[in-house]
Amino acid sequence: MTTAVSASPAASLFVLQVENLKTQFDTSAGVVRAVDGISFSLKRGEVMGLVGESGSGKSITGYSIMRAIDKPGRITEGHIKFCGRDNKIVDLVSLPERQMRDLRGNRVAMILQDPMMSLNPSLRIGTQLTETYLAHKKVSKQEARERAINVMQRVGIPDAERRLSAYPHEFSGGMRQRIAIAIALINEPDVIIADEPTTALDVTTQAQILFEVQKLSREFGTAWIWITHDLTIVAALAQNVAVMYAGKIVEYGSVASILDRPLHPYTKGLIASIPGHNSTLANKRLYQIPGNAPSLLSLPRGCPFRPRCAYADSTCLETPADTKLSENRFYRCWHPVETGAAL
């Protein structure tokens, strides 16, 4: 049964609050704990970066929030509290599917990394945009068409009115990605989950999209979860960042605090891997985190980063708990590193 209550002044501070979320996949080889007890809160107008290597659980976090996990995957524990513009709080985990469909693509939207996963190759672009709008808004087809043209222009598609009649295969990969972004933007949702949406775009177009993200956040209070492995984008775009490894958030804080003083060795390794991050990298080989991310079917004992960590010792055979430094800063490590310490 769905619980929807008027938001208290404290509750209205967030648009999305994830509490101890766990998503697992029951496979013939064993249980894959893709998201293993993560928690974070997202305020209106906030952009939060979600970073980590491939396989860390970033995308599954996004799909879990959208309630788009297919079998054998399932959310096994936790809450995803959403507070929309009507100041009603609902738990997306227990929300009936019919009500979830009303929110999905309307108040909570997602941009996929591969645009061909979200675009129907047999439908014209204009049809896909206007139907997304008409599904949630009681407007005329002409108004929906005008809205589609407007949002296409906002993501940098030239001659938008003419290109409404085009099919996805008539666009380049980068242009298809812009259309996927336009579909997510068209209803001006409260929350947009962006799964590496600018990967296929050139630098100029990427800058245009990032500008639109910041503009939406300022003008409409749209909150973003920006999933990426590119910390340079996070530095330019986000206010806060969560670092994921093996299904857990291992460090969280403001972008400035994370980039200036990373405490988890994994975070420090990610930053050190950025070309030209600081002058100490001059005339040296680019740093590479040793080893590979562990299989989620057979995680090492204790801290999952232990086999790759230069600071690991016998203490790390026990699972570390979160160490909270402030309301907006925590890490999960037995041996937090000093900023100047060598890797």
Spell out the blueprint of helices and strands.
Blueprint: E1 5-6, E2 14-27, E3 30-43, E4 47-51, H1 58-65, E5 73-83, E6 88-91, H2 97-103, E7 108-111, H3 125-134, H4 141-154, H5 160-163, H6 173-185, E8 191-195, H7 203-220, E9 223-228, H8 231-237, E10 240-245, E11 248-254, H9 255-260, H10 265-272, E12 323-326, E13 329-331
Parallel strand pairs: 4-9, 4-10, 7-8, 8-9
Antiparallel strand pairs: 1-6, 2-3, 2-5, 5-6, 10-11, 11-13, 12-13
Summed up, what is this model?
This is Peptide/nickel transport system ATP-binding protein. With 343 residues, the protein is an alpha/beta fold. It has 10 helices and 13 strands.
Count of discrete structural domains: 2
Roughly what is the average pLDDT, rounded to an integer? 88
Number of helical elements: 10
CATH architecture of the largest domain: 3-Layer(aba) Sandwich
Structure report:
28% of the residues lie in helices and 25% in strands. The protein is α/β, with parallel strands linked by helices and 343 residues long. It has two domains: 5-107 and 191-331, Rossmann fold (3-Layer(aba) Sandwich); 116-186, no CATH class. The protein has an eight-stranded mixed sheet with strand order 7-8-9-4-10-11-13-12, sandwiched between helices. A five-stranded antiparallel sheet has the order 1-6-5-2-3, with helices on one face. A hairpin with a 2-residue loop joins strand 10 and strand 11. It starts with a strand and ends in a 12-residue tail after the last strand. Mean pLDDT is 88; it is low at 1-11.
